[in-house]
Q: What sequence folds into this?
């Protein structure tokens, strides 16, 4: 086991960019939502840099990029609704599990760790994606970006998970790909571990100074 796991009873995972490479499907849905407004599709590489603060921010960034200005709230709402519709139609057609994920989850469960998911993705999409990859059984609790009034980098979703399982923060670990995961984890008093392969607005997540980094979750176990 990786030394970061010593004394840990609860491991909380981020979803997008940590367990799954979801940008190909997110980019299609963003493109279709913008096309409904007669705007050009941004493509995967831009969308990769916009993911991380939930779906409202994702569409705000896309509209701002396409039009050069902050969207009016009615346009923002309409395009966000269109995105939810399109993403709901095909949220895992092109999405892939990262290498090492299943092995890591199996090994952690075998060590009697509690596992939870805290994503900024809307909650409605979590179950279908976990089901699609056979991952639903691993997580005792899944928190989405719209499950609570606060989302990462606010520590509240992590504090909620720790309280739910009755585990003190110093025995909890947050694993994620972005500065929002590391900041939320640090503020919640969790240990933090980052993976470098996900989405962090085009910046190295090492700059957020997580307690540890692994190239692949397989290295955890
Ligand atoms: O939906 C997002 O913006 C990011 O989702 P994540 O928190 O699972 O990385
Ligand atoms: Mg992420």
A:
């Amino acid at each position: 086991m990786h030394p970061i796991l010593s004394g840990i009873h609860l491991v909380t995972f981020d979803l997008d960019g940590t367990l799954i490479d979801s940008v190909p499907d997110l980019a299609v849905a963003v493109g279709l939502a913008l096309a409904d407004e007669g705007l050009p599709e941004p493509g995967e590489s831009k969308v990769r840099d916009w993911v991380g603060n939930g779906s409202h921010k994702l569409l705000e960034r896309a509209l701002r990029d396409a039009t050069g200005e902050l969207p009016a709230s009615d346009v923002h709402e309409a395009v966000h609704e269109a995105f939810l519709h399109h993403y709901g139609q095909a949220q895992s057609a092109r999405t892939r599990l990262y290498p090492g994920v299943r092995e890591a989850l199996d090994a952690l469960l075998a060590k009697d760790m509690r596992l939870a998911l805290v994503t900024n993705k809307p909650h409605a999409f979590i179950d279908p994606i976990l089901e699609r990859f056979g991952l639903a059984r691993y997580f005792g609790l899944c928190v989405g970006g719209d499950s609570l009034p606060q989302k990462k980098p606010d520590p509240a979703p992590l504090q909620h998970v720790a309280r739910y399982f009755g585990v003190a923060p110093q025995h909890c670990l947050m694993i994620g790909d972005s500065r929002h995961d590391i900041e939320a984890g640090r503020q919640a008093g969790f240990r933090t571990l980052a993976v470098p392969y996900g989405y962090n607005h085009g910046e190295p997540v090492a700059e957020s100074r997580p307690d540890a980094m692994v190239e692949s979750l397989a290295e955890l176990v």
The chain has two domains: 3-22+95-220, 23-89. Residues 73-89 form the longest helix (17 residues). The mean pLDDT is 97. The chain has eight helices and eight strands.
